Amino acid sequence: MVTELRTLTYEGDLGSLRAWLAENGTLDITDALVRLEPEERAVSFRLLDKDRALAVFEAMDPLHQQQLLEALRDERVRELFRGLEADDQARLLDEVPATVAARLQAGLTPQQRAATAALLGYPSESAGRIMTPDFTNVRASMTAADALTKLRRAGRRPTRAQALVLPVTDDERRLTGVVDLTDLVTAAPDTRLRELVAPETLSVRVDDEQERAARLLQEADLSALPVVDKEDRLVGMITFDDAMEILEEEDTKDFSRAGGAEPLDQPYLSASVFQLARKRAPWLMMLAVAFTLTVVVLASFESALEAVPALAFFIPMLIGTGGNSGAQAATLVVRALAVGEVRFGDLARIILREMRVGLMLGALLATIAFPLVSIFYSISIGAVISLTLVGICTWASFAGGMLPLIARRLGIDPAVFSSPFITTLVDATGLLIYFSIAYVVMGDQLSGVLG
Amino acid sequence: MVTELRTLTYEGDLGSLRAWLAENGTLDITDALVRLEPEERAVSFRLLDKDRALAVFEAMDPLHQQQLLEALRDERVRELFRGLEADDQARLLDEVPATVAARLQAGLTPQQRAATAALLGYPSESAGRIMTPDFTNVRASMTAADALTKLRRAGRRPTRAQALVLPVTDDERRLTGVVDLTDLVTAAPDTRLRELVAPETLSVRVDDEQERAARLLQEADLSALPVVDKEDRLVGMITFDDAMEILEEEDTKDFSRAGGAEPLDQPYLSASVFQLARKRAPWLMMLAVAFTLTVVVLASFESALEAVPALAFFIPMLIGTGGNSGAQAATLVVRALAVGEVRFGDLARIILREMRVGLMLGALLATIAFPLVSIFYSISIGAVISLTLVGICTWASFAGGMLPLIARRLGIDPAVFSSPFITTLVDATGLLIYFSIAYVVMGDQLSGVLG
Asked: Where would you find the membrane-spanning parts of this chain (chains A, B) (predicted)?
């Protein structure tokens, strides 16, 4: 499909291009367009009719939107930008260079400009940045029919937040409740809104974290969540579609960090090779530096390695298994923290659970390893390997379960302490466990060289 | 807060318990309840008024719902179960033992029983399982006022799907379009629905995967997505709240697999230590078996290790860095696949990018490692370590970028090929790269023992 669009674009066959665009849906067109080179995208985009063009534009990432804007005429740019909701306008303004931002804002009415400027005044990652400042608030004393009339007057193309949930406010514009649109339309027209108000009023503060707001909306199954300022005055609404986007972004960030890389903050294929390397280099270097500890540990056990060279053969297996065991624990705890299933107060309980799990897993592996290693090497090496597996798995599960919780407590993203970090930590400490056990079990063979 | 509830429950102080429940919101109560032992939960739960009890029950996981049902009287159980939407009923019926299922269904009307039975007829993980079979369909020839009247008549407590989006159908109940509730309420009452129909009608088939449906709903910013059968007849609606839950579950699954463990399918703290171990043991064992390859590789290079013992010191650092580099690549590609940014067709492009990134990162590390190792050991060992870092990082990024795409093509969950799998693969192959380079660079020191 992309190849088809690319061929048509290269050939400049506008008739066929137009036909292709007419046959495909918004999401398919968007998907195909962003896979073309930035310069090629504008060709097809200009052929879309006005409504479809706005829909495709809305479905793009801010990066792709920016690239497209650079290729279009001023008039078209202003038209597209005006069509976005205020929170999407703010998001885009935040990402484009100042000169482009000025060009975009030129097309807005003074009210629109004030609205996006207000959103940009809130800290990034805050609820204020993703809320829609357009909403239709109602009074508890209104009837259902009044509220519908107010909605109808609010505008011909309402933003979703204007309609999905109606916030009920008092004379000071303080939030006192919410009415769900579905309850409003199914109620008798003369029902007072105070009878329709949801039993609980959930809201977030404008400077709360976006992720917190999004998770609250999800847990409570809300279609829109009111945002209030310090004085509890209503300032905006966060809708489910923005919450879904935030949660996807947050999960992508956690994934990146869990894989030992800084989040890309842009689609994978749009990032250049250099950008990819730059996001990964700091972590890789930091972990490589931490690995020098393993070199030091091994160098200090040189005599043991010379006395029993077979001890070296098991190093990757032992520290690798320890790393995997720690990664399992860390990943589960990081995710449970992210979705709100566990919190710092559960520390003792989690550590106890993880140590028992690590002990069980280590014992299981030891039971398999002991006979095999004893047959191929010796019973004493078999004993060292088995005991090390038990020790390393227990220690790794303990560290993997504990560190993400400590990180959360210290205000660090727990995902940082997932697989690569734990693996590296367990590698150095695992070697100490390994050689300590070796000295205890095989003292007679190693003590000569030690002395 | 949990401690507070637990103390009150133990003390049996019903007055204070009731006061505590009145002061807290649905989500806080749910959160505190599920942290109590299963037997203790029913005590507080019985004190909740009818509406709040249903809200708390709805907010629980199926596992916690089941545990609670077992502790309550038949009449109360039926009342709670009747209060759930059909898709939640089907989900719970699917998880409880057959005897409990019969007890639950006893309280349903024949229509309700038919509706949940129909949902249970669809394969698990299919769109059919999470759709709501209750919806209010309309005709294109109706006016906005007619549609609102039909909605109002549809029931006093409509399910969300009955209202957020109204599916437009023809005489055969085939889906021909959808009208957004927000457009309906803001239109003039005499507007024909055909003027309000959304420009595009997206839908999924009843046997499509849940995840596909949820991602489509998210990408298109829909509040509800129609579900049709093979003949394009409308059979249900999937709402945004169910889609959010599916996406969270799928991301949790990906996280587990990326951490080298099978998904728990239940909240972390509810799983027993034995269940945790059982989900992790298969992967840990499989990877440990794969690690025996590293033992074999190292044993075959025994003479080289004896000739230059310092070569052993760098093993954890080299294979660990390779593993981290591969994990970075794999994690980024797994996530990009999950959110639909890349697909199998991008294989060549991704491999090329990842190899260049790996080369850059390896070269960077080599530049730092060469002088350090040369000073502390020797220039030839410095050369071996640097060249190995370049080779291992390039190879690991290549494997990490490629394997998830191959997995997707073969119908395997790509997340399986994240950190632990790649790390283990790179460990064994990384050693081969290491010793091959050592033989080439330090041939004179190693060839004696080889021959």
From this structure: 283-301, 313-338, 359-379, 385-407, 419-442
